[in-house]
Design goal:
Layout (H helix, E strand, L loop, with lengths): L1 H24 L4 E5 L5 E2 L18 E8 L1 H6 L7 E11 L5 E11 L14 E9 L9 E11 L5 E9 L8 E6 L5 E6 L12 E5 L1 E3 L1 E6 L4 E2 L8 E2 L4 E5 L1 E2 L6 E4 L7 E6 L2 E6 L5 E10 L7 E11 L3 H4 L9 E8 L4 E10 L5 E5 L5 E5 L1
Parallel strand pairs: 15-22
Antiparallel strand pairs: 1-13, 2-9, 3-8, 3-10, 4-7, 4-9, 4-13, 5-6, 5-8, 9-12, 10-11, 14-17, 16-20, 18-21, 19-20, 21-22, 23-24, 25-26
């Protein structure tokens, strides 16, 4: 009996230890409110926030907003962050159930929304799901957990698209917003006749406000982003290639294992790794590259690279075209005395001739052309 109790306790302790170890291996989950600034009521509130999230004043509504790299960086979001959810803060309880609510996300280089982003450039990460009015309370955050985490690449702006598709309307509902920049948001609304994704929704407008959002994300881990194999090199010709990493914290340090082509060396420029030099031997070369960031403890990533060094293609270097023939004339004169210049002859480039030129002082100069 005591043995059984002891075994049971041991098993329980191991399970607890396993849970602790597993939990410790999970990446930290962080939150960020974007953009910075002060919350305000969505345009049209109270009651008539047409086109804005949480509004039920029209059957169907769509709101698309851009959150810039600067916005995200200012909030502490790092490149490579895995976004798990987005939250909207309720400013007014909807007048009826919010029908078929969807969230889509994507990357964009645009800083303004003048037309809606096409579906091909957006990924649906939430919905459709209908929420009753009891799901909302003024001042609370409504969380929309993504079906699949979305990785922000850190170099492009984030676009978020919120939409509802219903068959009735009641005044009321809307989220908090913040000032962002010129035309950073586009909203649209329509009663019957508009179907998801509402690309051609009847009434559309632009705003300098965007919905205030709260992102839940796991910080990006450093990843070598340059693909392998690297571009091939030519024996005897200069080679130069940059290897880059995304995400990570602070300064990156690089280590290159053995196996670089003879004549090629590794160096760093900022946070990039540079391979440069003149290959001296043909062949296929493989080498392991490791990058490490400055976090505590540091995060690192390794990647095996391949370079092919080819022999020069002599046929490509040879040409059957005759040399260009350009007349060249040689003259002699004395600019100081304004003596007349005299034509001493003509030669065509592309030939080898010895040209003898008699100068004004009767000396002779030979030019090998």
């Amino acid at each position: 009996m005591r043995y059984g109790q002891t075994a049971g306790r041991l098993t329980g302790a191991l399970l607890v230890l396993g849970v602790v170890l597993f939990a410790g291996s999970l990446p930290a989950q962080l939150t960020a409110i974007v953009p910075s600034g002060t919350d305000a009521l969505a345009p049209g509130l109270p009651s008539y926030a047409s086109g804005w999230p949480m509004s039920t004043w029209y059957y169907s509504q769509r709101c698309e907003a851009i959150y810039t790299v600067a916005d995200l960086n200012a909030a502490g979001v790092t490149p490579g962050a895995m976004i798990n959810s987005v939250s909207l803060r309720c400013a007014e309880v909807p007048g009826q159930a919010v029908a078929n609510f969807r969230v889509r996300v994507g990357h964009t280089s645009n800083t303004a929304v003048t037309t809606y982003t096409t579906s091909a450039n957006l990924t649906q990460v939430f919905g459709p799901q209908t929420f009753q009015t009891t799901a909302y309370s003024v001042g609370n955050w409504n969380i929309y957990t993504f079906s699949t985490p979305f990785m922000w690449n850190g170099t492009q702006n984030l676009v978020l698209d919120f939409s509802t598709t219903g068959t009735s309307y009641t005044s009321g509902g809307g989220c908090y917003v913040r000032t962002a920049g010129t035309n950073r948001c586009r909203y649209g609304y329509q009663d019957s006749g508009s179907a998801f994704p509402h690309d051609t929704i009847t009434s559309q407008g632009n705003s300098n406000m965007v919905p205030t959002i709260q992102l839940n994300y796991a910080p990006g881990t450093v990843i070598i982003s340059t693909p392998s194999p690297l571009p091939e090199g030519i024996d005897g010709f200069t080679y130069n290639q940059t290897i880059q990493a995304v995400s990570g914290t602070g300064t990156l340090s690089w280590t290159v294992g053995s196996g670089l082509p003879p004549g090629v060396v590794a160096s760093t420029l900022g946070n990039d790794l540079i391979l440069s030099g003149t290959p001296t031997t043909t062949g296929t070369y493989q080498f392991l590259v490791t990058v490490q960031d400055s976090s505590t403890p540091p995060d690192s990533h390794q990647k095996l690279f391949t370079i092919d060094i080819k022999a020069p293609n002599l046929e490509a270097l040879e040409s059957d075209e005759p040399p260009t023939v350009t007349p060249v004339r040689f003259y002699s004169g004395d600019a100081a005395t304004s003596a007349p210049w005299r034509n001493f002859g003509q030669v065509n480039t592309g030939t080898n001739k010895d040209i003898r030129v008699t100068l004004k002082n009767n000396s002779t100069s030979s030019i090998n052309w």
